[in-house]
Each structure stands twice: as C-alpha cells, then as structure tokens.
Amino acid sequence: MERLMIKNILYGGSPGQKVSVCGWVRTKRESKGFAFIALNDGSTQELLQLVVPGASPAFRELPQCNTGAAIRAEGVLKESPGKGQKLEVEVSGIEVFGGADPAAYPLQKKGHTLEFLREIGHLRSRTNTFGAVFRLRNILAAAVHEFFQDRGFVWVHTPIITAGDCEGAGELFTVTGLDFGKLPRNNGGNVDFSQDFFGKRTFLTVSGQLEAEFLAMSLGNVYTFGPTFRAENSNTSRHLSEFWMVEPEMAFADLKDDMSLAEDFLKFLCRRALERGEHELSFLEAQYKRTSLDELRTLSEAPFSRITYTAAVAELEKAKEKFDFPVEWGLDLQSEHERYLTDTVFRGPVIVTDYPKEIKAFYMKLNPDEKTVAAMDVLAPKIGEIIGGSQREERLDVLEARMRQAGVPGEGLQWYLDLRRFGSAPHAGFGLGFERLVQYITGMANIRDVIPCPRAPQTIGF
Ligand code: ATP
Ligand code: MN
C-alpha cells in the first residue's frame, strides 16, 4: 500500500479508508488491552493516533515502538472518540524500521530548552517547535518566489565566490586553493595570491547586489535568493555567518518604488504565512508568546510608518529612555534605537529613509542636500533592521567621487562603472535577510533557531 502523509490523512481521509503511514513515535502508552501510539511524520504539526488492539499481531512489535522509533503502520481509519483529533488508525500491522533506545534517545521528555536543542541540531527538527519553524521557512521561501514571479521579476543566480571586497558590507571569508603548508610569498613577505586558484584573492560573497544591478540593467526587474557570508565576529541573536538573502533590483525605479515594493513584499509574506502555516503559527504563539497571529494580520494590512533618519534622530533625542549607545546626527542607529522606534514610537514596522552618506555604502544615490543618500531601512518590531535598500547612484561623476571619498578602489569595479557609461538609468533595490524574516514571522528570539545548521563564530556543529 502506498504511504500517505499524516497531513493528508487528517485533512483528506475518511472513516473506513485503509491507510499505510510512516513516521517517528512520539509517545506510546497502554490501557485496557489497547496500545496507543502518537505518530509524527513531519508533514504537519499534528500527531496521528494509532490504536493497536491487544489481539492484533501488531501488538508483538510494541516493545520496539519506543519514543523516537521509525515505524510503518497499516490499518483502517476510524472516527476518533478522543479529544483533539477527528480520525485515528485502528492498526492491523506494524513494521519497525529502526528502534530508539529509550535510555539513550535525547528527546525523551517534554520541555527541552532551545539551548539544549541547539546541541542536538540533527534531532531538533523532530520537535514540534523546529518542525513548525522549518515548515514556515519553506512556506516563506516558496512565497518569495511566488511574489516576484507574479510580478515578472527574473530570478538570477549571482556568484558565491567573488574577487572583490567592493561592497564594504562586512568582513569577508577568503576562499583559497593554496596549500597552507607551503604558502607562496611575494617579496614583501605577504601571501602571493597570484598563485592561487583564480590568480587573485577571492572571497565568499556578502551580497549579490552589484551583479544583480547589471542584470537589472538588461532584464529589467530581477531578484536573487541565495546564501551570503559575513565573517564579522558578532555573537548576537540576529547575526549569522552564513545566511540567505533576497535581493530584488529594479530598473527605472526610485526610492519610493523601492519602499512600496518592500512593504508589499513583507505584507504578502505575512499573508502567505497566515494562510498556509496557521497551525504552525498558532502553536508557536501559544508556546513562546512572541509573535501573535493578530499582530501578523495587522502587519499584513496596516500601512508601514515612514520617517527620515533626521526626524528619527530627533525622536530618539527627546526619548525618556536611557540608551547604551549615543544618539547624534551622523551616527548609525543601533538595534536598541531601532527597537525604540518600532516598539515604542510607531508600534509597528517603520521605514527609515535618507541616512547620512558617511554611514551608508558608496553606491547609494546622493540626495540634493549632498549630506544624505536615498537609502531606506525597514525596521521590524523586536528585531530591528530586516531590510536594507536604496536607490543606486546612476551618475558616473557622482559615483566616482563617492568612491574616492569612501576609499573604494576603482580597479575591479570598472564593469560596475560601465553601467553608468552605457545606458545608465535610475534603479533601486534592497536586501532582505531571510532568517530575520523567519525570526519575525515565527517569533523565535534567536536567529540560530530558524536555520537548520546555524553558522556563527565558534559554532559549526552540524
Ligand atoms: P546589521 O546592521 O543588522 O548588522 P547590515 O546593515 O550589516 O545589518 P545589510 O548589509 O544591509 O546588513 O544586509 C541586508 C540585510 O541582510 C539586513 O537588512 C539584514 O536583514 C540581513 N543581515 C545582515 N547581516 C546579517 C547577518 N550577519 N545575519 C543575518 N542576517 C543579516
Ligand atoms: Mn543594512
């Protein structure tokens, strides 16, 4: 008999139907000549109740059906007299694929801490929490493509290995084929990367934006969705060393278009999560009380607040709250400032625009005041920055001047300047940190709990 998924059984099955189901045992108990097994197969939050009559030959397999064991059960669907489930399986046969020694299986008791579960990263996805988070992650990833595909954006694949630390977005990991036992040196005693695999020093990418720009300047509207890497030593609850970024880039667009896209995008993602992950969201809301379904519903409808950096600094200066970091025009907003704006001032997402040019990347379009750039950050409650974007500088002379001021070397970026020489046009885009989005939607406090294998300083266990 073909294996059915528990999700399909619970939502599409009917009494009397013969089923075959596979999964991992959550609990087993015996009472009045029956055994009851709660089974999960990862397809849904819910468990399927298996009822094994004492007279059934399947009963002989029960000693091996401990928590964690992988089994197949065959039987007939019955209406369930129990609370909380419509259907259960009256089992006629059980096949045990792999048992689990109850003395050794780490997921015996309920209520493990998230910290403990991080130490068993290969098993934590069997828990309700991580099953919910990873299914929501999938729903959101699919919705990212749906959103852009429906609007005619072309998904482009930008490289993971790059030759330039051009963007200045963060510290880079070096990629090398050199033998560390005998590193070639030049006259100055430095490593001679001209003898390396690509003939120059190469890195893991911190962003696909620069490449997305040339693709936008030919295909119109594009987006990337792929892994990015940052070697910063930031041990925070919102930074990973390897994370996924979504980066749309639009030709013939300005900062207003960019903000509208970002807002529509986040709202769409919230709606999809609510529509397709309601069980998961309800479970996480009840369990952690961080993101509520109501909050997500509001977010998917109410307009985002907007404020300029200059006005935001004025808000922060008159705040009664004591901040750890100084507030002053010209300094970057720290996450405590961002959270004050979202959680206290606006009580919802807010888009901050027009930052001082000194604290933003060289490619952002210089505003007429020549002090600020056409940048925008979307700040989400409890998380802070979730999206960073800008209109790009399309004027060659202004861009070159900005590069000189910022100390960005021109060589290696000639192709980028070419885009301003041949058919330059206004264009804009942003980067959404996918894990920050998943954090925001699921309410998970630590970014390490929304990606299956988190990479962070000194952390690469799984
Ligand atoms: P932050 O100031 O929060 O460190 P950033 O300004 O350095 O972020 P950008 O270079 O603007 O980040 O990257 C675009 C988006 O990628 C950010 O808005 C954020 O959502 C996400 N992001 C950046 N760094 C990380 C990281 N280390 N781990 C996870 N997501 C990140
Ligand atoms: Mn940013």
Note down, in words, how this protein is organized:
It is a single chain. The strands form 3 sheets. The chain has an 8-stranded mixed beta sheet, sandwiched between helices. Strands 2-3-4-6-5 form a 5-stranded mixed β-barrel. Strands 8-10-9 form a 3-stranded antiparallel beta sheet, with no helix packed on it. Helix 5 packs antiparallel against helix 7. The protein is elongated and about 85 Å long. The protein is α+β, with helices and mostly antiparallel strands. The protein folds into 2 domains: 93 residues, Beta Barrel (OB fold (Dihydrolipoamide Acetyltransferase, E2P)), CATH 2.40.50.140; 291 residues, Bira Bifunctional Protein, Domain 2 (BirA Bifunctional Protein, domain 2), CATH 3.30.930. The protein binds adenosine-5'-triphosphate and manganese (II) ion (MN). Manganese (II) ion binds next to strand 16.
H/E element order = EHEEEEEHHEEEEHEEHHHEHHEEEHHEH
Number of helices: 12
Give the termini distance in whole angstroms: 35 Å
Shape category: elongated
CATH level 4 superfamily of the largest domain: Bira Bifunctional Protein, Domain 2
Small molecules bound in the structure, each named once: adenosine-5'-triphosphate, manganese (II) ion
Give, in spatial order, the strands making up the sheet with the most strands.
Answer: 7-11-12-17-16-15-14-13
CATH class category label of the largest domain: Alpha Beta
Mean pLDDT, to the nearest integer, reads 95
Tell me the CATH architecture of the largest domain: 2-Layer Sandwich
Structural class: alpha+beta
What is the total tally of β strands?
Answer: 17
Number of domains: 2
Task: Examine the coordinates and then state which fold CATH places here, giving the name of the CATH topology of the largest domain.
Answer: BirA Bifunctional Protein, domain 2
Helix content: 25-40%
